[in-house]
Design goal:
The protein is mainly α. The chain has helices spanning 2-14, 20-39, 51-63, 68-88, 114-121, 128-143, 147-151, 181-193, 195-199, 218-231, 240-253, 258-265, 270-273, 275-291, and strands spanning 158-159, 164-168, 174-178. The chain has two domains: 2-88, DNA polymerase, domain 1, CATH 1.10.150; 114-241, Intergrase catalytic core (hpI Integrase, Chain A, Orthogonal Bundle). The chain is built from 14 helices and three strands. Strand 1 (158-159) and strand 2 form a beta hairpin. The longest helix is centred in the first third of the chain and has 21 residues, at 68-88. The protein is globular.
């Protein structure tokens, strides 16, 4: 079955053009699935898989305490895999066809308040690493970039004189995002006073680098963000995506057009962006409940 998985992953890269991170996510999901089939169901041939085995796999995930969103994603991966095998003639049936997707609970994304964002942005120092951290935080909050998009940026993606950046996101789709004055200033300072110190003898056009002068990784930035959150005593769970959520929520709270926010976030479907309108309403209710004398 590993051979079928290898073919499917190659199809995702070559024909679907999915990003390395997305392909790795599919691989993790399907490795888990195939491991279950081989060890729990004693299935060695993909054509021997039936609906009952997939249902058993989903039940095992639930018993393991996995969230319904995770189970739904795993089933989506399994379905896509079996549909591919059926199209390719590697299987004579699709056992996932009649398996229902578990209903996912709706969870609103966590966001920072404006004052928490300010505290985070002010938590950096003026060392070369501090100036780099400041620029990365400013650009994340100014643009709503995904952390992978941020770490993949190059010098040629910057158009500071005109006040925008170019980003290549999911599905290799390009978008142009405006920058505010604070982000432009932080980037100019980083480029003049920090990046040359960090890159030293490295000759590449990667925008954000680590202390070795090489490309910043998602994991590396995650660690930096966690430390900065501790420094300014932010108690909320903070991830790079929290700044993306905060970017979208704060724009909508201040009257931004939903379609414009969708464009800047790079969402293919506006229904994905609409979750932030619910976040805004929830925050308004919280403010009312906290401050209105007769709430």
């Amino acid at each position: 079955m590993k051979e079928e998985l290898t073919k499917y992953l190659r199809y995702l890269v070559v024909e679907k053009g999915l990003s390395a991170n997305t392909v790795q996510a599919y691989e993790r999901d399907l490795d888990s699935y195939l491991h279950f089939l081989e060890n729990a169901e004693n299935i060695q041939n993909i054509n021997s898989v039936h609906r009952s085995s997939i249902v058993a796999y989903l039940f095992a995930l639930k018993e393991d305490g996995r969230a319904s969103t995770t189970i739904s994603r795993r089933l989506s991966s399994v379905r896509s895999f079996h549909q591919f095998l059926l199209r390719e003639g590697a299987c004579d049936h699709d056992p996932s066809d009649l398996v229902d997707i578990p209903k996912a609970e709706k969870r609103l994304p966590k966001v920072l308040s404006a004052s928490e964002v300010e505290a985070l942005l002010d938590s950096t120092d003026t060392t070369p690493l501090g100036l780099r951290n400041k620029a990365m935080l400013e650009i994340l909050y100014a643009t709503g970039l995904r952390v992978t998009e941020l770490c993949s940026m190059t010098l040629s993606d910057l158009h500071l004189d005109m006040g925008f950046i170019r980003c290549v996101g999911k599905g290799n789709k390009e978008r142009i995002i405006p920058l505010g004055g604070a982000a432009v200033k932080a980037l100019r300072t980083y480029l003049s006073a920090s990046r040359p110190e960090l890159t030293r003898k490295e000759t590449h056009d990667v925008l954000f680098v680590n202390h070795h002068g090489r490309k910043m990784t998602r994991q590396g930035f995650w660690k930096i963000l966690k430390q900065l959150a501790r420094n300014c005593e932010i108690k909320k769970e903070l991830t790079p995506h929290t700044l993306r959520h905060s970017f979208a929520t704060h724009l909508l709270e201040n009257g931004a057009d939903l379609r414009a926010v969708q464009e800047m976030l790079g969402h293919a479907d506006i229904s994905t962006t609409q979750i932030y309108t619910h976040v805004s309403k929830t925050r308004l209710r919280d403010v009312y409940a906290s401050y209105h004398p007769r709430a």
